[in-house]
Design brief:
Blueprint (H helix, E strand, L loop, with lengths): L2 H18 L11 H35 L4 H21 L2 E2 L5 E2 L7 H28 L7 H28 L4 H10 L3 H15 L4 H24 L7 H20 L1
Helix pairs in contact: 1-4, 1-5, 1-6, 1-7, 2-3, 2-5, 2-8, 2-9, 3-8, 4-5, 4-7, 4-8, 5-6, 5-9
Amino acid sequence: MNMNVIVGLMIPFIGTTLGAMMVLFMRKEINNHLQRVLTGFAAGVMVSASFWSLLIPAVEQAKESMGKTGVIPVVVGFCFGMLFLLLIDTVIPHMHLDESVEGLRSGLKKTTMLVLTVVIHNIPEGMAVGVLYAGWMQGNAAVSFSAAVSLAVGIAIQNFPEGAIISMPLHANGMSKGKAFLQGTLSGVVEPVAGCLTILLASQLVPWMPVLLSFAAGAMIYVVVEELIPEMAEGEHSNTATLAFMLGFAGMMMLDILFG
């Protein structure tokens, strides 16, 4: 694995770290309205990345080798991606911002379950970046190095508020600023790890690249539908989270088209 790929896999993690760092400089917890806005932005980025960076290249590559029937393995990969995250969501105990708990019963602390929520979010993001770098490393015509970098940068941008959203509530619940920053940062470690594992897997499954691309897209869409959209719609009705979704989607689309 060359240095460019290693640096690329670390970009989203850097975004999470910078966001978690906000707890060191801000005195108050992020208010609920701002949390919904940031969540809406993150949802827009993830939906846009799933479509422009993953599904379109998957369909284009599958059609080249299989014609119109190439859409079938792409659809299968997408569905399996959603089912994979459904399994993780069902098994791993985690807590949402409204303090509702999902997953198997456990004696874990609230703070630990909050971190696990972000870890679940980050798995498909790391996979998505990893599968694009894998495609580029294999000389896949449907995937370019700049497309992989633009996706990594787009995810890093949405990880910035996500890092703050996890570290600041931890501090508000009594954790020290330093420890809250560390926990927020560690929640992003899963992204480069998931990216590396995806690259290793993809190197053994070169002909299945369209399936891997759509699998990552399905996993990301699951997070948006199951977690982010309900969170951005909580509380008093507001259109600002919807507008933030629009900005996230448009920004990621621009990144992908201009640099992909």
